[in-house]
Write a structure and sequence with these properties.
Layout lengths: L3 E6 L4 H14 L4 E6 L4 H7 L5 E3 L7 E2 L2 E2 L1 H7 L1 H5 L1 H14 L4 E5 L2 H10 L3 E5 L12 H13 L6 E4 L13 H4 L9 E4 L5 H8 L8 E4 L6 H7 L2 E5 L2 H10 L3 E4 L5 H13 L2 E3 L5 H10 L20 H16 L16
Parallel strand pairs: 1-2, 1-6, 2-3, 6-7, 7-8, 9-10, 9-11, 11-12, 12-13
Antiparallel strand pairs: 4-5
Helix pairs in contact: 1-14, 5-6, 9-13
């Protein structure tokens, strides 16, 4: 029988779930996997992995005002969960034991990690936002990001792996639909927006409609991955996963950080230093789009500074690191030498 592992992730942002999907596609060759995710992600997981067990976990819901996160209101919104976290963790511990979970892999989901610790189950944190701990700053937003990352990726885990295109333990982790297909270069620009900034971004690109073709996402009837593979450039928020996918596919990207979110500001800054795109700002979005479109032919340019960048798909190395951790947790010595080849198929 395959060892039983659980995979959990945060409910804010597609990037966490995207990484979990990419890793699960590889790991299911060796392990029986169950998923532990917040309510907004249940349907997506069931659709992608219909034969696997999926469990709901509570999550911290961010409160936003336009393009800005409001941390005080976020604390107020989640007050009940924070006050009752011990009971939540104990309940998860019992569920994990009940379903015979032998190890947990978590992408920025704190309650399963603490529940697994209570249950004596080995736990691995693998995420990007913990990268802020390697780039300290005295600013309020940086301090806040440090506190949040410590809470969301608890130090009680047995091991933490930071995946990042800059200064990471491993580099970008890509889904199979991006890893297994060759990128093309068609004459259109992919524009991905969050609802809170959609109107501003679309107004800013409108004047270029005579000379450029834009495909706007999210769109229910359009395949985002296919457009990502075939576009010539990208305009999007500064989430790490989208930036990483753009870099690995060779697509220049204009990344727009969310205000008061230090990690996204850091992502955009490092993107620009890597030579693979530009950092934008929602307040100057029209000017930033103009500069970006005028300079598309200059990308990529040489990286700046002394930061270490991983500018290619690093999924296989990430899987190897996880396999090494799981072999110590779940497998007999004989099993550890079997099935070592990583599959690139879904």
């Amino acid at each position: 029988m395959k060892p039983v592992i659980a995979m959990s992730c945060s409910g804010e942002g597609w990037g966490h779930l995207s990484r979990v999907f990419a890793l699960a596609e590889q790991l299911r060759s060796w392990y029986e996997i169950s998923f532990w995710v917040p309510a907004p992600l249940l349907q997506l997981v069931n659709k992608r992995f219909p034969s696997h067990q999926v469990f709901e976990v509570p999550f911290l819901e961010l409160v936003k005002d336009g393009h800005t996160i409001r941390y005080r209101r976020t604390l107020s919104r989640n007050r009940s969960l924070l006050l009752n976290s011990a009971a939540v963790e104990q309940n998860l511990a019992e569920l994990l034991r009940k379903h015979h979970v032998e190890a947990l892999i978590s992408d920025f989901e704190p309650y399963t990690v603490r529940g697994a610790k209570r249950a004596g189950i080995p736990t691995l944190n693998i995420n990007h936002p913990s990268i802020v701990q390697r780039f300290p700053s005295p600013s309020l937003h940086s301090v806040t990001a440090h506190v949040v990352s410590r809470y969301m990726a608890p130090a009680v885990a047995d091991k933490t792996i930071i995946c990042s295109f800059y200064q990471g333990d491993v580099g970008p982790i890509l889904r199979s639909e991006l890893r297994c297909r060759e990128p093309q270069m068609e004459d259109f620009i992919l524009v991905y927006t969050k609802k809170e900034s959609r109107e501003q971004v679309l107004s800013a690109v409108k004047p270029y409609g005579r000379h450029e073709r834009f495909e706007v996402f999210p769109q229910a009837d359009k395949d985002f991955a296919a457009s990502l593979l075939s576009c010539k450039a990208i305009i999007a928020p500064a989430g790490h996963q989208t930036i990483s996918e753009a870099i690995c596919l060779g697509k220049p990207i204009l990344a727009i950080p969310q205000k008061a979110q230090y990690e996204q500001q850091l992502n955009a800054e490092m993107l620009e230093a890597s030579g693979r795109g530009l950092a934008g700002c929602i307040e100057s979005i029209s000017k930033d789009i103009d500069i970006f479109l005028s300079n598309l032919h200059h990308f990529p340019y040489a990286p700046k500074g002394k930061t270490f960048f991983t500018l290619q798909d690093d999924t296989e190395r990430a899987v190897a690191a996880i396999r090494s951790f799981l072999r110590d947790c779940t497998e007999t010595p004989d099993a550890a030498f079997q099935g070592m080849k990583i599959s690139s198929a879904v």
